[in-house]
Design a protein that fits this description.
The complex is a heterodimer of chains A (353) and B (261). Chain A is an alpha+beta fold and 353 residues long. Chain A has helices at residues 42-50, 92-102, 107-120, 136-149, 166-183, 194-200, 218-223, 228-233, and strands spanning 4-13, 16-26, 31-35, 57-62, 65-66, 77-80, 154-158, 186-191, 203-208, 211-216, 238-246, 251-254, 257-260, 273-278, 293-304, 308-314, 319-325, 338-343, 349-351. Chain A is elongated. Chain A starts with a strand and ends with a strand. With 261 residues, chain B is an all-alpha fold. Chain B is globular. The chains are: A alpha+beta (353), B mainly alpha (261). The structure holds adenosine-5'-diphosphate and magnesium ion (MG). Adenosine-5'-diphosphate is lined by residues 13, 18, 36, 38-44 of chain A. Chain A: Residues 4-234 form the ABC transporter domain.
Chain lengths: 353, 261
């Protein structure tokens, strides 16, 4: 039995169905991300776990116990908000101590725990500051310490890094992940930033219009997207429309040529439309061992991005974006060059719509 | 630029003359009780009058009661409206404004009709009951100011998210009110409290019609029967109001230094 279970969870706001048939099993100590565009229902789902919204239907269990009837303050859940939500009238130490005081813990225990938490977030010297005297990154670390001080069963974070600038975002996400691992706390992390989700999570739940499109490890989500939405939302992706040429041989007609596709075409018949996806890094200009597909193409665009050069090539009926590494020894291709694109038939992903 | 500053100086001087001269005249007159010299005789006479002491004390107590009732009524209401009924805010605001439009005399006549000795709740039958009624009347009079002050205070904090943060940490709603919301609107509450104090101390209509020994009716009584003492009393009442306004400024400034950017 999973530690945190959502089964058949649904949420309607009046006539609008915001979350539909949400099923998820989270193991103890797992770090799960909800990833999806703004408005897809991530926050609403998180708030149902926290108890701030009541599901229209479905069950939410924590450690085997149904929590749907419990108020937020009975659920023992840690929550971190995008806006930090530190209490402005309290110092850093008082903020961190708040939950422990509410729980009626003895003074000595509170002091020890606050000191320990401030150590974990590496801000022991700021104990007596007020929130307005801290930077955004520091405030969010204090908010994390405040949420963790009460040793919650589950930690929920709703886009905690969205209000911070890029550099702090990266360092803080590493810090959050390290703290989460060290404490072994079961965590749900809401974000619309695919890089954040891919780099931090044990598993990602990709959401789209209130539905779960795919649940999987970052590796699975990135390399074998289950739906065309997942494929287009996560990473840069080539999407190519083709027509099934021969289902038994696994060939798809793209423009004027047939390409071999290793992934199963399922029950599709010849002549059916099919969407294929291909990661830019799967395609190379020079052949690599194991690649069994070669396509003639003409370069139409070259963008120098530093360590990587992004090239767009026309294969007749479609353009393919590919990334090659910059190498001082060989100059990048030029627009108009005729090239051969090399890839493996197993790199194609057939998208379900 | 130059023209504008010239005009603002003229307006300022006119305002000082309009507001300041009568005050100055009153202060001057209040110190002329002893013939030929300036003295504080009128003030000593007023302060030494046992009726002054009794009525002033009574009004101070009533003001404090009014503040307590007002805070208990307004802070949870304004908080609740912001949190749960944001669509109702204009309606609630309109209701809190009504006392500005309805004269105190109408309100107090309504009270007397509703709560007289032959009514279902004969509050006017006892001194304590009448005091309670007067407190509620004062609360009504101060409601527009108290509500505005508190609502403005609540606007400076993210009420909903702070409440949720506290709840997720295990707090019940009394803890949320007492430890999170109230401390963060304390300055606003104090502003409302000082305004309430200033209003209650000088209030005449309600106290007179409910026949309670308050400071307002005493002012009127002295004003009708004496020469120099009323001027002294006016200056004292004025000073109290100013002190209240000064305290509002002071707490607002203190807040800026200790809590907010
Ligand atoms: N309290 C509410 N009342 C009505 N609609 C809401 C409410 N909260 C959220 N919604 C709607 O539900 C949808 C999902 O919102 P949300 O869960 O906040 O999305 P996300 O966090 O993924 O951006 C949005 O269309 C939003 O407008
Ligand atoms: Mg959201």
């Amino acid at each position: 039995m999973a530690f945190l279970e959502l089964s058949g969870v649904r949420k309607d706001f009046e006539l609008v169905r915001v979350v539909r048939d949400f099923n998820l099993d989270v193991e103890r100590g797992e770090f799960i991300s909800f990833l999806g565009p703004s408005g897809c229902g991530k926050t609403t789902t998180l708030r149902m776990v926290a108890g701030f919204e009541t599901p229209t239907a479905g069950e939410i269990r924590i450690a085997g116990r149904d929590v749907v009837g419990l108020k937020p303050n009975q659920r023992n859940i840690g929550m971190v908000f995008q806006s930090y939500a530190l209490f402005p009238n309290m110092t850093v130490a008082q903020n961190v101590a708040f939950g422990l005081k509410v729980a009626g813990k003895p003074r000595a225990e509170i002091d020890a725990r606050v000191a320990q938490m401030l150590g974990i977030i590496k801000l022991p010297q700021l104990a007596d500051r007020y929130p307005f005297q801290l930077s955004g990154g520091q405030q969010q670390r204090v908010a994390l310490a405040r949420a963790l001080a009460v040793q919650p069963q589950v930690l929920l974070l709703d886009e905690p890094l969205s209000a911070l600038d890029a550099k702090i975002r990266v360092s803080l996400r590493e810090e959050i992940r390290a703290i989460q691992k060290a404490l072994g706390i079961t965590t749900i992390y809401v974000t619309h930033d695919q890089e954040e989700a891919l780099s931090m999570s044990d598993r990602i739940v990709v959401m789209h219009e209130g539905r779960v499109d795919q649940i999987g490890t970052p590796f699975e989500i990135y390399n074998t997207p289950a739906t065309s939405f997942v494929a287009s939302f996560v990473g840069t992706l080539n999407r190519i429309e083709g027509i099934i040429a021969d289902p038994s041989a696994g060939t798809v007609r793209v423009g004027a040529r047939d390409v071999a596709v290793a992934s199963p075409l399922g029950a599709r018949r010849a002549g059916e439309q099919v969407s294929l996806a291909l990661r830019p890094e799967a395609v190379t200009l020079a052949p690599r061992p194991g690649q069994d597909v070669a396509i003639e193409a003409r370069i139409v665009e070259v963008a120098f991005l530093g360590s990587v050069i992004r090239v767009r090539a026309d294969i007749g009926g479609a353009t393919i974006t590919l990334d090659t590494f910059n190498s001082p020894a060989s100059p990048p291709p030029r627009i108009g060059d005729a090239v051969t694109l090399h890839l493996s038939s197993s790199d194609w992903v057939v998208l379900a719509d | 630029m130059k023209r504008r500053s010239l005009w603002s100086w003229i307006v300022l001087v006119l305002a000082i003359l309009y507001f300041g001269l009568p005050l100055l005249g009153t202060v001057d007159f209040s110190m002329k009780m002893r013939r030929g010299v300036y003295s504080l005789d009128a003030y000593w006479a007023v302060l030494g009058d046992p009726r002054f002491q009794a009525t002033f004390l009574y009004s101070v107590v009533m003001a404090c009661m009014t503040i307590v009732v007002g805070v208990l009524l307004v802070v949870p209401t304004a908080y609740w409206v912001r949190l749960k009924l944001p669509r109702w805010r204009p309606v609630i605001e309109f209701i809190t404004m009504l006392p500005l439009v309805i004269p105190a005399i109408v309100i107090v006549f309504g009270y007397i009709r509703l709560y007289n000795t032959s009514s279902w709740l004969p509050l006017t039958g006892s001194a304590l009951g009448t005091d309670a009624l007067l407190t509620l009347g004062y609360t009504t009079l101060a409601l527009p100011y108290m509500y505005r002050a508190v609502d403005t205070g609540l606007r400076t904090i993210d009420v909903a998210t702070l409440t949720e943060a506290a709840e997720s940490l295990g707090a019940g709603w009394i803890t949320v009110m007492w430890r999170v919301i109230l401390p963060n609107v304390l300055v606003a509450v104090l502003s409302g409290a000082f305004l309430t104090f200033a209003i209650v101390i000088g209030e005449f209509t309600m106290a007179a019609l409910l026949n309670r020994p308050a400071f307002g009716p005493y002012l009127q009584l002295v004003g009708a029967n004496r020469a120099y003492e009323p001027a002294a009393l006016a200056v004292i009442a004025f000073a109290i109001t100013w002190i209240c306004m000064g305290l509002i400024q002071l707490v607002t400034r203190l807040q800026k230094h200790t809590m907010r950017v």
